[in-house]
DNA sequence: GGAATAGTGTCTATTAGACAATATATA
DNA sequence: TATATATTGTCTAATAGACACTATTCC
């Protein structure tokens, strides 16, 4: 049952605050990076955190996540039920975190979402003025606070390291059996660019020849556009768009078995 | 950011009720079944719904799900971090549902959990006195309300059909790449019993010979206990326990590619 | 030409799936 | 005996992974 009594009785249930937090991933300079914002107030003042905010009173969870995403990055969310007018990014619910002690101020349940975005030509178009940046997930997840890059060494605020870790693991496994790796690519891309996405997300090196044969042979994964490009140097490469398939069959296989 | 201001300001965020709903699945008589409870009050009075209830003020989400599970079924949850003293059932978070209109009375965010349980010798040991029963998921998800079994024909309350559908899909896909199918089995089971679990969850027939070769050849999946049984008739079968592996490599392959 | 990337072809070990054959219980 | 289930073995087609080789650009 959902409630014991039909008339709305506010004393019948404890009140919660509900937020959305975002794990926004992209691939930059051959590394998997996440969006982090710097906290301006306590608790965890000055520490880095995942972007996020309160769900509004009449707002769906996914709508709240999409709104926060646009506010922080200027990206438009691309959910299964909606096309993207500007620059698409994949958005899906990740998991919900509700430890009673996760926020020292009050009881906050956070519905984390995962966003996969292409490397932005102009990062954070419409973002707030507060400090935000892309950082390699390895840096953000490091335990020790050896000051390597200085400001980025301290661990993430709240339970955000755990949330980020869960998001990274979700992304690593979803590009195995779905075509979501293309969400990290611009609308048109080469097989080599797609391979570098897999290599960055999985953190492994892949054989370019076998990779090419595999992705071009998987039905519905890639659609050739007819064009070619030479942005990587070397022989010009064919350009592709993401095909209609969402689930890959057979899946891409992650090495190290 | 999580909140705009450090001092706790209740007016700064809208209040939500947070519940857990349970998709409890088992395999009975060669069919995948879910636990449903009958609602005693409006809205949806008299309709079937998923078991669930409010998260308490100082309770973790998973603890709330485990508590509701024990209240409704007598089952003890078996989470990664805890052994089960009585009868184990696998519990994991499924997804969170927060459509502003999903409950007509107030704003309720429900964190759904998935439970995989063996067929119970005595169903619902410590359950409440209110009406509860196992029903085939096909029956619960039927759209039309042709009165076949009478009481079970009406659609589920709230958005519970969608939640149940998501839970069934999660279970179907998780037994592909994890050893979770053993969560539907008693502590000791035969290869044939495990095969009937796969057949019931996937709704397909599997070749007993290839299945046997596959599961016994997957490292860490099954551990022979040395005993045999003849509960299915025919030649006695070896008894196995679940092995230590949680992820299957290579995975079980679902037919119909 | 040399270096870099793109793309095709070939070989081998592994495996999924079809299915024959054998083993051991109950009726 | 017939029948049911369990278990092993065999064959074949498909595929992942290793890697030789060719193609086409820029320097």
UniProtKB/TrEMBL annotation, chains A, B:
List UniProt keywords, sorted A-Z: Hydrolase, Nucleotidyltransferase, Transferase
Domain of life according to the entry? Bacteria
Do you know which CDD domains this protein is assigned to?
NUDIX_NadM_like
GO terms, molecular function: hydrolase activity; nucleotidyltransferase activity
Nudix hydrolase domain span? 15-158
For the keyword Signal, the answer is no
| PROSITE patterns in the record | NUDIX, NUDIX_BOX
Concerning its family, UniProt says: Belongs to the Nudix hydrolase family.
- In Swiss-Prot or TrEMBL terms, this protein is called Bifunctional NMN adenylyltransferase/Nudix hydrolase
Q: Which organism is it from?
A: Streptomyces platensis
């Amino acid at each position: 049952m959902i409630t014991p009594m039909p008339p709305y009785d506010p004393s019948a249930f404890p009140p919660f605050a509900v937020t959305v937090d975002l794990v926004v991933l992209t691939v930059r300079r051959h590394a998997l990076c996440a969006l982090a914002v710097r906290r301006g107030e306590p608790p965890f003042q000055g520490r880095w955190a995942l972007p996020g905010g309160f769900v509004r009173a009449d707002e769906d969870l996914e709508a709240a996540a999409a709104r926060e995403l646009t506010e922080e990055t200027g990206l438009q969310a691309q959910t299964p039920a909606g096309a993207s007018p500007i620059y698409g990014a994949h958005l899906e619910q990740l998991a919900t975190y509700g430890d009673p002690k996760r926020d020292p101020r009050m009881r906050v349940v956070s519905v984390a979402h995962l966003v996969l975005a292409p490397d932005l030509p102009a990062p954070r178009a419409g973002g707030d003025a507060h400090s935000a940046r892309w950082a390699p997930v390895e840096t953000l997840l490091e335990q020790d606070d050896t000051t390597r890059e200085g400001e980025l060494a301290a661990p993430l605020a709240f339970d955000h390291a755990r949330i980020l870790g869960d998001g990274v693991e979700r992304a690593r496994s979803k590009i195995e059996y779905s075509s979501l790796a293309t969400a990290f690519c611009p609308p048109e891309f080469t097989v080599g660019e797609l391979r570098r996405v897999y290599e960055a997300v999985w953190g492994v090196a892949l054989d370019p020849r076998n990779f090419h044969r595999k992705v071009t042979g998987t039905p519905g994964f890639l659609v050739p556009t007819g064009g070619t490009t030479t942005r990587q140097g070397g022989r010009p490469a064919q350009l592709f768009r993401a095909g209609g398939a969402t689930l890959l069959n057979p899946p891409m296989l992650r090495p190290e078995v």
